[in-house]
Design a protein that fits this description.
The protein has helices at residues 15-32, 51-56, 81-90, 93-106, 122-127, 140-155, 190-199, 218-224, 251-257, 277-290, 327-330, 344-348; strands spanning 2-10, 35-40, 62-66, 107-114, 132-136, 207-210, 234-236, 264-268, 293-298, 335-339, 353-358. The protein is α/β, with parallel strands linked by helices and 364 residues long.
Length: 364
């Protein structure tokens, strides 16, 4: 048996999860001499094109395993992405168990680090006496909300979006109920029930690795580190930042190099952020009329689900026929449209970027 300490890491689907977990894996190898295996749940028979450069750039000592794909054929077409993420993890449990069992037999497996959507894997970790840890790749405010939510759930009557007074999350600025996370906005939706069940399991871990740091979120982190019965210790280990894509310089980064300093608007709505057709047309016409230089990461529009492209892979289909007719010709030289995905950290580091319009950034 290999005696080097081995860590299994289980991200949930989506580049916004895979990227920080890959960075964590590389740090554990380079700074602490662990061996690491990324266990990657899937919904397709082959990796998405955007995953390949991330996995190819992994440090030596980091391996990865794709689990057997799961199916969503039984779900309604309007199922929320959060529902699909959670079900991807729960429907992969048998594959996760087999992988953990195999790693435990062949290596000195010392820990399983999971994504918040993969809390059900804790039962597998405990079955094989492997200490479970949570890696929270979002911010401290969201983590504080996660711990506070079970109490809040019992206090609030009706929907959070209808609350008159702001919600007071420990250590954080007051937040209007309508601005809380999307999965908690509709108590009748199955996503609410699944999300609630996950949050109630946060206390089962040995510790929480938080991708933030004291200087950025002092209030929230201090609140999280107050000793409380049953709450696991929280370790701020951030920022884990991916500084390169692992690929040769892309054509659009070369385009940015030729633009004036601070003049380009970067538009991206994350791994799954999706506009309706009307919203896309309005944005396109607004860009065109403004004459502003821009780089826009676009995804096929969907008028029903705001994060409809989260589980789709459009990287093989670069057709942009859904944009307004003639838009690409009329903005040629001023703007650049990138289908599906782009390495945000690399773009944001370019001196030509002067403004960002984004729902959230997928690379921390």
């Amino acid at each position: 048996m290999e005696q080097t300490p081995h860590v299994a890491i289980l991200p949930s689907p989506g580049l916004g999860h895979l990227i920080p977990f890959s960075e964590l894996a590389s740090r554990l190898v380079s700074r602490h001499n662990f061996l690491v295996t990324l266990i990657i749940p899937t919904t397709t028979s082959s990796p998405h094109k955007a995953q390949k450069p991330i996995l190819e750039a992994l440090s030596k000592g980091v391996n990865y395993i794709f689990l057997r794909p799961v199916s969503f054929e039984d779900l309604p077409t309007d199922a929320k992405s959060e529902t699909k993420i959670i079900l991807t993890m729960t429907r992969s449990l048998s594959s996760i168990r087999a992988t953990i069992k195999s790693l435990g037999e062949k290596t000195r497996l010392v820990s399983l680090i999971v994504d918040p959507f993969g809390m059900d894997a804790f039962d597998i970790a405990k079955e094989f006496n492997v200490p479970p840890y949570l890696f929270f790749s979002s911010n401290a405010m969201n983590l504080s909300f996660g711990f506070y939510f079970p109490k809040l759930d019992g206090m609030v009557v009706g929907e959070f979006r209808d609350l008159v007074d702001p919600v007071l999350i420990p250590g954080c600025v007051p937040v209007h109920g309508r601005d809380l996370l999307d999965p908690v906005q509709d108590r009748s939706n199955v996503a609410y029930k699944l999300f609630s069940q996950l949050l109630k399991r946060f206390n089962l871990v040995e510790g929480i690795l938080l991708n933030s740091f004291m200087e950025l979120e002092e209030g929230a982190i201090k609140a999280l580190q107050v000793e409380e019965l049953g709450r696991p210790p929280v370790y701020p280990i951030g920022p884990l930042v991916k500084t390169g894509s692992g690929e040769e310089r892309s054509e659009f980064v070369e385009w940015l190099d030729n633009q004036p300093r601070g003049f380009v608007l970067f538009i991206s709505f994350g791994s799954g952020g999706t506009l309706s057709s009307n919203q896309m047309n309005e944005l396109a016409f607004g860009l065109e009329m403004s004459g502003q230089r821009f780089i826009w990461v676009v995804k096929r529009p969907n008028s029903k689900i705001s994060n409809a492209t989260y589980f789709s892979d459009e990287s093989e289909n670069n057709s942009l026929e859904f944009l307004p007719k003639g838009f690409l010709d009329r903005t040629k030289g001023i703007g650049l449209v990138v289908p599906d995905w782009a390495p945000q950290a690399e773009i944001l580091a370019n001196s030509s970027i002067g403004c960002v319009s984004a729902e959230y950034v997928t690379e921390p």
